[in-house]
Design goal:
The protein has 388 residues and is an alpha/beta fold. The chain has 13 helices and 13 strands. The strands form three sheets. Strands 2-9-8-7-6-3-4-5 form an eight-stranded mixed sheet, sandwiched between helices.
Length: 388
């Protein structure tokens, strides 16, 4: 007798929209602005160091928490950019990308029935990882088009079963960078209700328009209750390296490490010295890449504006949110399925990042972390849209 062997709590999480849209991009030879990965490699010196490490004995298991050279570099990075001091031996854990860091953190701290408050739209792995842990998610929406956060709604979502506040800034998929005032209010809620905070900061260096990323762990009373997550993928355009890390108080890091050892055991060894090198690169690398991405954002936003498609504020990350309501789009899922064939461009419907799809039914996320000529070709193809 046929049956679905997948456990019930994971049945809502089938094939991701990213895989579907990538296939449609290939089938229709469309410009793929759907999935958030660059189409160029990262710094050559990091590539050379990773390749050299293969021939220098970095081919066996790394220590459980990561090579000391990388843990030291992560600790130096946190101090250098944010004045955060962490013990590389007790307060740093190297993971297989930020996705594993998120999973290990949630699996470590959630008992079945514990609740997690998070902002939507949200990165899709959050909901799946909460489900894996037997937790319950409570979402609070960012309000379009200005991406304001209803702090009263956050307070209302917290109850006696709430265990974790899951935060993402700079924010995927919207490109919002949370302000000091917003983060201070969230920190106040976390302290008042004794919540743990898991803060996904993988886009920490990709911030535009003179804004600055502020880790919530730097605010009063937050260091002792926050796990901070980042990775090599976004900052260095090396998403396939799947090397991330989390930092925080020793007891929380130890809890995540206890789970991580039964997920992947350890990370890929030969990448770690190269990642450490990257974290120690000069300031100009980090600021220069952000400036380059800001220019690509402007190119795509201008192209959308020329065909009458408004966008929400994009203050960082790889992504911009476009509103096609003026083009009679009321179902962005259907629209995004048609877009590769009809226009030759791929985007992702924002509704796949939300529990409540209705307020975002006309919104599409585009990634601009592509070569400039690719973005210009996408802009040319977007001219195929009517101006409404």
């Amino acid at each position: 007798m046929a049956f679905d062997p997948l456990v019930h709590r994971l049945r809502p999480f089938g094939t991701t929209v990213f895989a579907e849209m990538t296939q449609r991009a290939l089938h229709f030879d469309a410009v793929n602005l759907g999935q958030g990965f660059p189409d160029t490699d990262g710094p050559q010196e990091m590539l050379d160091l990773a390749a050299r490490s293969l021939h220098e004995g970095y081919n066996q298991y790394a220590p459980a928490r990561g090579l000391p050279v990388l843990r030291d570099a992560v600790a130096e990075h946190q101090d250098r950019f944010y004045g955060i001091q962490v013990d590389p031996d007790r307060e740093v854990l190297v993971t297989v990308g930020a996705t594993e860091a998120i999973a290990a953190s949630l699996l470590a701290v959630l008992e079945p029935g514990d609740e997690v408050v998070m902002v939507e739209p949200y990165y899709d792995s959050y909901a799946a990882c909460i489900a894996l842990a037997g937790g319950v998610r409570r979402t609070v929406p960012l309000l379009f088009p200005d991406l304001t956060l209803d702090l009263d709604a956050v307070r209302s979502a917290v109850n006696e079963r709430t265990k974790v506040l899951l935060l993402n800034t700079p924010h995927n998929p919207t490109g919002k960078v949370f302000t000091r005032e917003e983060l201070s209010a969230l920190a106040e809620i976390a302290r008042e209700h004794d919540l743990l905070v898991i803060s996904d900061e993988v886009y920490e260096h990709l911030v535009f328009d003179g804004l600055e990323h502020l880790p919530i762990s730097t605010l009063p009373g937050m260091a002792e209750r926050t796990l901070t997550i980042s990775s090599v993928g976004k900052t260095f355009s090396l998403t396939g390296w799947k090397t991330g890390w989390l930092t925080g108080p020793a007891e929380l890091v130890a809890a995540a490490a206890a789970v991580k050892q039964f997920l992947t055991f350890v990370g890929v060894t030969h990448m770690q010295p190269a990642v450490a090198h990257g974290l120690r690169m000069p300031e100009e690398f980090f600021t220069g890449f952000a400036r380059e991405l800001q220019g690509k954002r402007d190119l795509l936003v201008e192209a959308l504006g020329e065909v009458g498609v408004p966008v929400s504020p994009c203050q960082g990350t790889y992504f911009v949110i476009a509103d096609f309501a003026g083009h009679d789009v009321s179902d962005a899922v259907d629209f995004c399925r048609r877009l590769p064939e009809e226009i030759g461009v791929v985007g992702v419907p924002v509704s796949v990042f939300c529990d409540d799809a209705e307020p975002v039914a006309s919104l599409v996320r585009f990634a601009f972390c592509k070569q400039e000529e690719v973005l210009r070709e996408a802009a040319r193809r977007l001219q195929g849209l009517s101006s409404g």
